[in-house]
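User: What would this chain look like folded?
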Amino acid sequence: MDYRTEAISLSAFNAEIGRLVSAPVVTRRWITAELLDVNVRGGHCYMELVDKDPATGRTLARNRGIIWANNYAWMAAAFREATGQNFATGLKVLLCVTANFHSVFGLSLVITDIDPSYTMGDLKRRRMMIINRLRDEGILDMNRTLEWSVPVNRIAVISARGAAGYGDFMHQLYSNPNRLRFTTRLFDAVMQGEKAAESIINALGRIASEQEAWDAVVIIRGGGSTSDLATLDDYSLAAHVAQFPLPVIVGIGHERDETVLDYVAALRVKTPTAAAEWLIARGNAMLDELHSIATALLHAASDRLSGSSRQLAFYAGQIPALARERIHRTAARLDRCASLIAAAGSGSIAINRRKLDLVAQGLANASANAITRGKDRLHSLGELLTALSPEATLRRGYTITLADGACVTDPGRLSPGTVITTTFAQGSVQSTVK
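Assistant: Here's the prediction, encoded as structure tokens.
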């Protein structure tokens, strides 16, 4: 059998497929898919619908999707009101679709309805998966348990340069009524899109390298679509914030906006302006506390001075009387002492006078005896000196020979021609040695 004789054209083949696709089984079926390449043209919304393996991310199925203009207007409005955003790439959606096969353009899925609650639930589900993982790792509450510096006035700001949210934050912070002084520096980062998480992590790294210069970190950006904020629901970014060594303040979006960073930061506020208001309020609270302390010190000092003044006045009145009484008691005591001294002195003087008389008599007797003994001794010494004097010796027949004024005791030392003088009891003679 020759199969080529039964061949049909592509258009005929597509027509057969079209008849099969139009069966009720593929009409108004609810499916889940992820949106890619969303594009609005001529009032119609075109996109790619994909189904991915949750474990590997591998694409399991892919089809074109279309929302015709007559449905797109109300569907987009309802979706925006429920989720706060338009259809965008990366969203997980629950759609009511009907298979449509066109002989020229092939198979496409016509979207006729959407359930926004599924999209919101998927975003929350992914967020809760990250939160549970951080909790299991024991790091979910680390940043929230850090102590705040006192004061908190050196602020490292992570935001996009020129962003409205950053401008609102700076204006609010530096126009505070009490003129509180803050030091800030912008660490520029991409705050939306696929590179947002990585960019914020890099900014945190730059701050960590000089963490001693800062009291806290503020991560801020204005509001946006849920898909824009969904890029911040990133595990790595959340882990960095949770473990950051400084308290982190997150002010992202509007009041109803929420990201996983709100669950790990030390403080979550509604908007960038609210972050500035919190810092100002904390500074004002510290000022109020200082004012209270100063007032308490003033009152305590006033009370102490008042009490001291009264005490001084009391002492001022008491001191003269106390002094007079003390002087009177001292004078009386001196009088008694003087009387006792006088009485004791009279008896002591009489006794001592008698002692002195006895001592004087004894000294007179002792002196007389000493003088007598001294005279006797002097007389004996005088007689001895007289007996031993040279004159007495000469009278006994001895002579004294002098040579050059010195006594001669050894005639062998006299040289011939020396003149010597010989003294006798009666006169003297000179001789020459030969």
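Residues 143 and 242 are 5 Å apart (CA to CA). If you want, I can go into more detail on any region.
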